[in-house]
Write a structure and sequence with these properties.
With 225 residues, the protein is an alpha/beta fold. It has 9 helices and 8 strands. The strands form 3 sheets. It has a 3-stranded mixed sheet with strand order 3-4-5. A 3-stranded mixed sheet has the order 6-7-8, sandwiched between helices. A two-stranded antiparallel sheet has the order 1-2. β6 and β7 form a beta hairpin. The two termini are 26 Å apart.
C-alpha cells in the first residue's frame, strides 16, 4: 500500500502570514496537533505544531534560564526561542525542515519516517504542492481495513497467520515487536518498524517464515544505527 491509498485529502492549512492566534484556534477546533503551512500557490513551506506553541509568554511557559547559562547559550538559539515564545505570525514559529513524502511513497517508508523523526504525521506533496497528509492513525486504519477486507473476501487465513505470528512473538524476550509491526496480506507477512540489530532482523524473518501458511516475508524494517 502507498500513501495515496490512505492519505487524508481534506487538510486544514495555514499561510505563513496567518496570525498565531488563528492557528491555535484551528488546532483546537479541528482537534489536530499540527497544521501544514502553504504559500499562495499551495506549496508546502513548513508546519506548525503543538510543540512550537508550548513555550508561550501568554501562559508563562517561555524558557527562562539563569543569566550565566544564557550568557553561554548561542545567539541563534536564543533568537529562535524568543520568536517561538513571542511571535505573532505563523512564519515566526513554524518548522521549515519538514519531513514529507509523495503519493507513491510506500507505507513502510511513511512508517519509518514517523518513527525516525518522532512525528505524528507526514505531509504528502505532488510537485511541491500539498495534496494530503498521512498520520499514525491512518496507518492503523489501513491495518484494520486489510484485516477486514481479508475476512470479507474469504481470506480469513491472513488473520489466522497474523494471530499465530503475534502469539509466537509474545513469547520472545529478545524483541518488542507487536501488532503495530505486522501486516499480513495474501499470505505475505509485512514486518515494519525499528529494530535494534541485524540478528534481531534475521530472527524476526525466521520466526515469520516458520508460521504455517506464510507465502513470503517482506522485510520493511529499519535499523536504529
Amino acid at each position: 500500500m502507498r500513501a495515496i491509498d490512505v492519505m487524508v485529502r481534506d487538510v486544514v492549512t495555514v499561510r505563513p502570514d496567518t496570525d498565531v492566534a488563528e492557528a491555535v484556534k484551528l488546532l483546537s477546533e479541528h482537534d489536530v496537533s499540527a497544521l501544514p503551512v502553504v504559500d499562495a500557490y499551495g506549496h508546502l513551506v513548513g508546519i506548525i505544531s503543538e510543540a512550537d506553541l508550548i513555550r508561550r509568554v501568554e501562559i508563562g511557559t517561555e524558557k527562562q534560564r539563569p543569566w550565566w547559562v544564557e550568557a553561554v547559550t548561542g545567539a541563534s538559539t536564543l533568537a529562535e526561542e524568543f520568536a517561538k515564545s513571542h511571535g505573532k505570525k505563523v512564519e515566526e514559529l513554524m518548522t521549515t525542515d519538514v519531513a514529507s513524502a509523495t503519493e507513491q511513497t510506500p507505507l513502510s517508508e511513511i512508517a519509518a519516517l514517523l518513527e525516525r523523526r518522532r512525528i505524528k504525521r507526514v505531509p504528502i506533496t505532488r510537485n511541491g504542492k500539498l495534496v494530503g497528509v498521512v498520520s499514525r492513525s491512518n496507518l492503523i486504519q489501513a491495518l484494520a481495513s486489510v484485516i477486514g477486507r481479508g475476512e470479507e473476501n474469504g481470506a480469513h487465513r491472513d488473520l489466522e497467520i497474523r494471530q499465530e505470528l503475534l502469539s509466537r512473538l509474545e513469547k520472545q524476550t529478545w524483541t518488542d515487536f507487536g501488532s503495530r509491526n505486522v501486516i499480513v496480506s495474501d499470505g505475505t507477512v509485512h514486518l515494519w518498524g525499528l529494530i535494534s540489530s541485524e540478528p534481531e532482523r534475521k530472527a524476526l524473518i525466521a520466526l515469520a517464515e516458520s508460521v504455517p501458511g506464510v507465502v513470503r516475508v517482506s522485510d520493511e524494517m529499519i535499523g536504529m544505527d
